[in-house]
Specification:
Blueprint (H helix, E strand, L loop, with lengths): L2 H22 L5 H5 L5 H7 L3 H12 L2 E4 L6 E4 L11 H14 L2 H4 L5 H21 L11 H22 L6 H15 L30
Antiparallel strand pairs: 1-2
Length: 218
């Protein structure tokens, strides 16, 4: 095998390794499971609250998680029974707007004690409870609606639980510390681990020169 072929093979191995690493980054837990590597996806996941907001919206709309008998797959659908939908569009938007202001990446990058988190979550829950109570008629809740009234407290508690889990990411500033540590690691690590290419061996045999007859035949 020539030097050129060895270099090409080494490059192809490096390219395949880089592609495997890019595929692994699609899983936010990939770096945590295998250790080392780039933790950027895990940090982005910690700062992303889209799933929590979606869960709260489904809770407020009382969507149904049903299984498709034909395909065997399960998915969320809109509740076909309008009387069981907890809040109408106005109520859902008002509550989500409030939550977006208090659950975001700025809060996660803060440094809270467990007591501070509990106080903040309690204030948020009280605000949501009062907002729904003061506007229940505008939000589609009637005085004689036993189903919604009976589930009112539990829905607020479940929302508070989701918010508390999000705030616990800021406990003792752990998320902020992790982000700073990742920056230091990224700055200290090389951009790409280059493979060791085979070096061309220099021959110890002396070359024959036309101007040096004693080198002829060596």
């Amino acid at each position: 095998m020539t030097i050129e072929n060895e270099l090409i093979n080494a490059y192809e191995k490096e390219l395949a390794l880089a592609q495997q690493q890019n595929q692994g980054q699609n899983n936010p837990y990939a770096t945590a499971m295998f250790g080392g590597g780039n933790k950027q996806n895990l940090i982005e996941w910690e700062l992303d609250f889209s799933q929590e907001l979606e869960d709260i919206e489904r809770l407020l709309r009382n969507d149904l998680y049903v299984r498709n008998e034909k395909t065997g797959e399960s998915d969320w659908i809109k509740n076909p029974d309008a009387s069981k939908v907890f809040l109408n569009n106005l109520g859902v938007n008002d509550i989500l707007r409030k939550i977006r202001l208090v659950v975001n990446k700025n809060k996660v990058l803060s440094n809270y004690t467990i007591d501070e988190i509990r106080v903040r979550v309690k204030i948020i829950m009280d605000d949501i409870r009062v907002t729904i109570y003061n506007n229940y008629e505008h939000y589609g809740i009637k005085d004689d609606d036993e189903y919604k009234m009976n589930n009112y407290s539990s829905i607020v508690i479940e929302i508070g639980s989701i918010i508390e889990d999000a705030y616990r990411r800021a406990l003792a500033g752990e998320t902020h510390k992790g982000l700073n540590e990742q920056r230091l690691v990224t700055q200290n690590e090389p951009l790409m681990a280059y493979p060791q290419y085979p070096q061309m061996q220099q021959s110890n045999q002396k070359k024959a020169h036309w101007y040096a007859p004693w080198s002829w035949g060596k």
